[in-house]
Each structure stands twice: as C-alpha cells, then as structure tokens.
Known about the structure:
This protein is α+β, with helices and mostly antiparallel strands. 48% of the residues lie in helices and 23% in strands. The model has no long low-confidence stretch (mean pLDDT 91).
Amino acid sequence: MIEDLPTTRTEQTAQRQRQALLEYHAILENAWVGIAFSRDRKILRCNPRFSEIFGWPHGELTGQAGSVLYTSAEAYAEIGQIAGPILSLGGVFETETEMRRKDGSTFLAQIHAKAINTADTSAGTIWICEDITKRKNNEASMRRLLLEQRAILENASVGILFTSDGVIMHCNPRMEEMFNWEPGTLAGHRASIFFTSAEDYAGFGAAAQPALTSNQLLDLEWSNIRKDGTSIWCRHLAKSIDLDDGKLSTVWITEDITERKATEEALHRAHDELELRVRERTAELDELNQRLRDEIGERQQAEDRMRHMANHDALTGLPNRRLLNDRLSQAMALAHRGKHKLAVLFIDLDRFKTINDSLGHAGGDLLLQEVAARLAGTLREGDTVARLGGDEFVIVLPDLDTADDAGHVAHKLVEAFAPPFLIKDVEIHATPSIGIAIYPNDGKDIATLTRNADAAMYHAKDMGRNNHQFFSEQMNVMASKRFALESNLHGALERNELLVYYQPQINIETRQLCGFEALLRWQHPEQGLVAPGHFIPLAEETHLIIPIGEWVLHEVCRQNVAWQRAGYPVLPIAVNLSPTQFRQRDLVEIIERALAGSGMAASCLKLEITEGTLMEMTELTLDTLSRLSALGVGLSIDDFGVGYSSLNYLKRFPVDQLKIDQSFVREIATDPDDAAIVTAIIGLAKSLKLGVVAEGIETEQQLAFVAQAGCHEAQGFFFSQPISATDAELRFLKLCS
Length: 737
Ligand code: C2E
Ligand code: MG
Ligand code: MG
C-alpha cells in the first residue's frame, strides 16, 4: 500500500479515517465468521462469509428483511422478543438457533449480537453468525459414544478396570461385584489387593510384563482373591493404553472362570482317573495277554511235546513205530512212483537180555541210547532209524538202486558195533543181528515188509548173530513156526509136552562124569523137539517161566532121586534159573519144597544164574544166595564173562562155581583175546577158590586148552549133546556104576 504524505490536519484525519475503513473492510471481507449489520429489522450489510453461510449470492442480502434468515415468522418474532431487551440494554445476545438458507434448508447457527452503539440502539445491531451444525453433530455423537461406552461398562458381564501405575482408577460394577467390593469402593486401591501375597502379585507382574510393555494383548489366567479373602479364578485380558501422562495405564477385562476352572479340574481329574484306569486296564490286559501268550506257548510246547512223544521213543528220541509207519508208507509211495527199491532193516541186539541183566535197568537204557546214536550216526540223511521197543530197531533206506546197497549199509552197521560201548565205565560188547526186506520184492505193504525183515533178523540170529541176512520165502515158514510155537506155549505144561534133557559134565582130570546140566526141551506135536532159546524168552515175558521153572526143579529132583535109588553114583545136577525166577520172593521155599518133596539132598542140586541176575538188586540177591547156600545148594555163575561182574561182589556172594561162556571157548584156538579171557577166568576162579566149568567144548583142542589152563570141569558136544534121561542113564550113568 502506498501512503500519501499528509498535508493538513484535516487531511490527516480524513486519511486516518480512510485507512481505518480500509482495515475494517478487510477484516469484514476475510473474517471466517459471518458478520452482518442490521437496522430497523433489515440487513444493512454483511460480509461474504455471512452470505455464504446463508446461501445467498454476495450483495443480495443487503436490504433484505431479517426474517429471511429464520425458519418462520414466529421464530423471528421470538428471537426479537428475547434479544430486544438485552440489546437495548447494551448486552450481548447469544443464542443457538435454527436458521434458514436462501434455498429453504436449515442449519444450526450460533449467534452473537450487540448494539453498535449502546447509547443509541437505533443505530443498528451487529450480528456475528457461525454455522455450528457440524460441531453440534460431533458433540452429539461424542455424547452418544460416551453414553454407549458407559452402558457397556455398566452392563458388561465381564469386569473392566483401569489402572495407572498399579492404582485402580475406576472400574465397572461387575468388577466390584466379582471381587465382593461395595459399589464405588474399588477405585483408589492398589491392584495388589487382588492378590494373596506380595510374591503372588510380583509373580503375576512378571507374567504380565512382557505383553503389556510390548503393547500386546495379555491373556492370563490367575487365582486372585476377593475382598473377603476367598479365592477366585480369573481370566485377565489386558492391554496398556497410552494416555500421554507418562504413566503405565492399563485396561483390564476380567472374567470369573472359577466355575470353568472347577469343571476343567474335575475334567482333568476325571481324565487323569480315566487315564489311570486305562493304564491299569491296559496293564491288566497286557498281563492277561502275556499270560495267554505264555499259556498258548506252553500249550504249543505241550502239544509239540505230545506230538513228539506220540511219534518218538521216549528213551532214545528216535521215531517210534507210528512215525516209522508214516515214513515207510511215504517212502513206499515215492519208490513206487520212481520205480526204485527201498529196504527195511530189522535190528535186534544179540543177547541184550543178558547184557541188560548184568548192567541193571539204568545201564541197559544207557546202552540202548548209545546204540541209537551209533545207528543214527552210521546212516545218511533221509534214512530213518526207529525204535520199536526193547532192543528192536528198524531202519528204512528209502532210495536204493539195488538190494546190494542195503547189504552194504547192514555191513557198515555191523562194523559200527565193533568198538565196545562204554557204559558206566565198563566196556560192553553188543552186536546186532540184522534182517533185510526189500520193497517191492519182499512185500508191497508195511506189515509184510516189516514181518519179513523180522523173519530175516531171526535167521541172522540163527546164523550165529552179529550178521545180516536178506529175507527169503523160506524164512517165512520158520517165522510162522515160531509164531505158532509162541501161541502154543501156554498149554505146553498141562499137555505134558515139556521134558528135561541132561548134558553130562566131565571132570577134566579124571575124565569121569561129575554131574549133569538140566536143559529144558519142548516136545512140540508138529515141530518136534524145540530148544529153549525159542521159547524161554517168551516164557520170561509172560511169566510162564515161573510154573515151568518149578516144574523143571521138581522133575530134576525126582529124576536124580530115581537114579540114586537105582544105585547110580550120587551126582549134582545143575538147573538154570532165569532172572524172573530168581526174583521170586519165595524162591528158597520153592526149592525147599522140591527138595523135601523128592527127598533129594541139597548138595545134589546146583543152581545156575547169570552174571546179570547176580548183579541186580544186590541186597536181595545176597540174602537169597545166603539162604540157598545155607540150605547146602550149590551156586554156579552161568555164561561167565559175557556180562559184568564186580569182583568185589564175587567175593561177597557165596558162589561155588564159574561157567565160562561158550562164546569164548568157541574161538579159543584161533582168537588170542578169547584165549586170554578164558585163561583169566580160570585164574580168577582159582584165586577166589571157586570151581570152574568150561562150556561148549566141541573139540579135543578146546579141551586141551582149558585143561592146560587149569579148568576143573568141561561140558560140551565133545562129550555129549544134551540127551534124554534114558540116554543119560544108558550112555553115562551105567558106565560109572
Ligand atoms: P545155558 O545154560 O548156557 O546152556 C548151555 C547151552 O549150550 C545149551 O543150549 C546147550 O545145548 C548148549 N551147548 C552145550 N554144549 C555145547 C557145545 O558144545 N556147542 C554148542 N554150540 N552148544 C552147546 P540149550 O539147551 O539150547 O539151552 C539154551 C539156554 O536156555 C541155556 O543156556 C539156558 O540159559 C536156557 N535154559 C535151558 N533150560 C532151562 C531151564 O530149565 N530153565 C531156564 N530158566 N533156562 C533154561
Ligand atoms: Mg546153563
Ligand atoms: Mg551157559
């Protein structure tokens, strides 16, 4: 603005007035509120903002009646009535009222009015007007918001509380109710009143701190206390709020979860209990399961054992007859299909009875086990060796090209038995007799094949034992004879078919008859004279040997007395006693009866028992032997050397004589071992002051050998076969008299 320099005072005054006018004009033009001057109820002038507020083009309001600004004539009149007195007194009229724009729309206006000249109110009024619609709206919504928030606070079902630096600023009624505080009494307390102890409060603070300081939402469950000290489980949701006052302000939303906790705990407990039960039950089931498994296992084992037992021999563990039959029928089917041969070998141990008697039962069992092992060890995989019982073994060779192959195997088996068996530190010589039957030639079914192998085995025995024989039809004839014999034996005694033969015993030095051995014979109606080897074993098994043996005793006593009465020299007769006979408790009485019944002197009776019998049940044996000896009956040990005699017992027992077994005598001239054994037995007898008889003397040479070795007596075919009583009388007794 360019200011002209004043020239006169008036001019200066006029210039100052112009200047003021300009300034007022500028103020009016730029004011942010509407300003208008009125006089006589008309608008004299207004600034652009006033026109703008009322929606009039600027300038058009000038000269308009004041009523155009009001919503109605009444409203205008009312304002006039209220404002008039105030203005006329020079006061400021202030109101908020609804006003009207040119287009008829209304708005809320705040009005300040004052007389321009309080001394002369007719000079007009200045009206300052502001459109406060927006502000009013804002205020209303703010108020509503506050009301709403208070409603929320008052009615919330959760507790809401504000703290500032640990002091409760305010809270809602629910919060107080929850913690048992009277309405309006919580504010001002420290928040620590909710905690049981300072430590508890510190613990809570430590748990809450991280979330609150990092402006995160805290969500924490805690056991707090009420005013009355009872505890309450709460879930606290909290957030720090910045109120720009430099304090840590926090809003807390707290929920009473006591019930939920109780439910949860109950649930937990129920769950724990359930888990415990489940664990217990599981353990029980596990145990039951284990027990079941054990039981099944045991049952399985028992079944396996049963199956094994059903199919195997308990003593040797070898397959038994059942399994043998199974294998044999399978092997036969295969052989039939493959058009090859198979062999069944029937094996019986020679003189097993004697060996068994001498070793005792347990020793016999051990020997059978060793034999089983030796048999199995000699065979190839695929061959079957089974035990039928006793000393009977059967071997199946399932795949043969020729029958000769079976012969080779049998030969190998015989060889396998050559080394002695060591049983209880004693060397035992056991030999096998083997019968062989070939499929399909010797039988097409199990029964025929085994029967024929059995027959062949008997033949091997007849052929001097310790060898093998192939089956031939001829053997069947013999076997059936044997069978018939066995079934006839029962009635033999009643039918008077038994008779006693006598074999002379010769004093080697004098070459004089010195006694007889009584040897049983069976005069079979069809088979003729049968030797005891064919029926004594059966008689033993069936215990028929008891009545038969007693009959022999009586018969021998009767005969001897008859010979003596006839004037022949008084000689002892030896009677064989089998183990079963010797085991009879009333043996001594039977003998006494036989002696008394016949009137024969006890010294005329000699009893032959085998080594086995002697060694068995030593105490009873000793007792029986002592009583027999006391009677005056002679005692002789038969087949001496085959079994095993303890020298100690020999010394203790009242024995009179040893009979050297004929198997040693047989080879005496050719086998240095046998010669040595015979010499040793004679030496032993001498040193024990016992008589000694050599059995089975068949040749001059044999006789010469035993004579030279110092043997007292001899018996054998060289002198005579066993002969009938009549022949004995004619050929021997008569010569003595
Ligand atoms: P043992 O008591 O050893 O009888 C001797 C056997 O040898 C008799 O056979 C006899 O005939 C036979 N013998 C005799 N001298 C010779 C010989 O020079 N060469 C050959 N090779 N053999 C000869 P036997 O009569 O067949 O009797 C066999 C066995 O039967 C007897 O053997 C005996 O243990 C038993 N025995 C015989 N009679 C009876 C009896 O009445 N009761 C009992 N329990 N057993 C009897
Ligand atoms: Mg004898
Ligand atoms: Mg003998």
